[in-house]
Amino acid sequence: MKQSGKWNIKRWKKNRSIRVTILVSYFFVAMVSLMVFAMVAMNYTRKTVLENAKEYSLQLINQVNNDIDSYMDYLRNTAILISSNEDVQEYLFENGRDKAQVDRITAQFRTIMDTRADIVNIGIIAENGKYLLNHGQLKVNENVELHELEWILQAYENKGLTTISSSHVQNVVDGKYEWVVTMSRGLRNKRTRQMEGVFFVDLNYSSIRELCASISLGNKGYIYILDELGNIIYHPQQQLLYSGLKVEKIEEVLTASEESFITEDGKLYCVSKSSDTGWSVVGVAYTSELLKNSAETIRIYIYSAILILIAALILAYILSDEITKPIKKLSRSMHEVEKGNFDYVMLETDGENEISRLSSSFNVMISEIKHLMEQNVEEQRQKRKSELMALQAQINPHFLYNTLDSIIWMAEWGKNKEVVLMTSSLAKLLRQSISNQNELVKVEDEVEYTRSYLTIQKMRYKDKLEYEILVEPEIMNFNVAKLILQPLVENAIYHGIKYKEGKGKILVEGFRRDQELILRITDDGIGMQPEQLEKVFEKRRTDRKRNSVGVLNVHERIRLYYGQEYGLTFESEWGVGTKVEIHIPYEAERMEEVDG
Q1: C-alpha angle 387-389-393 in degrees, rounded to nearest 5
Q2: Are 414 and 571 in contact (CB under 8 A)?
Q3: 130 and which of 45, 108, 126, 264 could share a cystine (Cβ 3.0–4.6 Å)?
Q4: Which residues of 406-421 are buried (b: 16+ CB within 10 A; e: fewer)?
Q5: CB neighbours of 544 closer than 8 A, spacing ≥ 6?
Q6: Considering the entire predicted model, what is its pTM?
Q7: Do 513 and 474 meet the contact criterion of CB atoms below 8 Å apart?
Q8: pLDDT, tens digit, 9 for 90 and up, residues 489-543
Q9: How remote is the C-alpha of 435 from its chain's centroid?
Q10: pLDDT per residue over 358-374, tens digit each?
Q11: First-to-last CA distance in the chain?
């Protein structure tokens, strides 16, 4: 076998035409060149785009970090200003309690809060039990042990330096429990030289959120902030983190040796750590989005590749043109035959080369083509008819199995009347599907076929389905394409009624409208969304658990038989239901009775 294979390859190489050799060679060279070019160019572009994206993202993250530092500097200055206030010292540590003194402190608090919407609480608290909160009217939560609060302990440990906590629920103010970041500063009693109080400001996330949201890292990118211990200060999806639905690569961020890195799942992490606050601002971008920005460069590569391919093909054409001239006459003769001129004079054959053999074959083809065309037309007509009949005659095995199971179940429970009714309906359904081999059936037969189907489905889904058939008597004797009504009813059940809560109803109507015969199926199922309605005629994979004679098949068969202006129309509203109409021409020649 191997010897034979090698011999066949050698024989092909020996007998192949010169033109094929030229075209194959140039095509191979062009394709290899394009592949190498594309691989090098794409790798270079990807690397360049990612490097530029890293640099740009780092600039943005550093900008956010600088803005946060400036924001915190403002709050530190505020803390220093309050801490150095003599009224605060006297009020907390020297028994100062006159109203004017309290009013001056609370006025200062009020001014700060009125100018900063992101400040939730501001206050001073001393170990001796004195305190002032916000406008002076709030109280300290008596159930909280102040000396155990972590942010207060940190303020004492930093000995007068400003401290920024991680995000937490602030419960020091009676009746208020909000997620905040607390900036605190220890207050030293000038007489005892000990830390005996604390000034604090509770911040919500509005300013931090605005700073982070002002930076765009693509449609899906985002920014979050960590403290020195890896605790999350801010995250745009903080609730998902707390609920465990989202996990961040905090360990990788804290231990990263570089300012940016790319993870296996295609995310670019850029980290900027503040030496002032100790916070790390982390930007997360998706490389899939970043690489979209390289579309212009890729377009240039594509244009270049096309130009290279065109140049190669032009060169191959020029080189092969001289060789292919002898067959141009044959090509012109074939063109005349394509236009239907079968009386064209036979070509003269001379020699035993490829063109001579091709001319001889062409002469034979001319003598046979009429016969072949007539035979092909007849075969195609029979094939189309067979395909339509096969489609029209399909019975869904899954539906049949379920129906037989229902009959067995009802028989076991002694429901004889239901067994008789369902068996009778199934017998009618089977008899109607296999007894009539014509492409046309009467409206009455199509309605009865559908009624049998609905009877079975109603018994299977007795708490789910109701139906009503209202077809005008004067159209019952007209003939229509077979099996166009039942598939739409089945579609209404399985895609509308089945997913509705409670019982649904299907209404089948038939009537004449102007010069059209209309068959309408209306259901009060779940309906369709606008995007689903737009795709109702799209071709889908066949579902083996459903009848393959679906909506698209019915629509195409009607248009094939009656014309492109006829077929199906859909109206649907989500949560209300769906209405589909079958439009057929009301013409006498289409409605002739069919034997059978």
Answers
A1: 120
A2: no
A3: 126
A4: bbeebeeeebeebbeb
A5: 398
A6: 0.43
A7: no
A8: 988 988 889 888 888 999 999 999 988 999 999 999 999 998 988 888 876 655 5
A9: 46
A10: 667 767 666 777 667 66
A11: 58
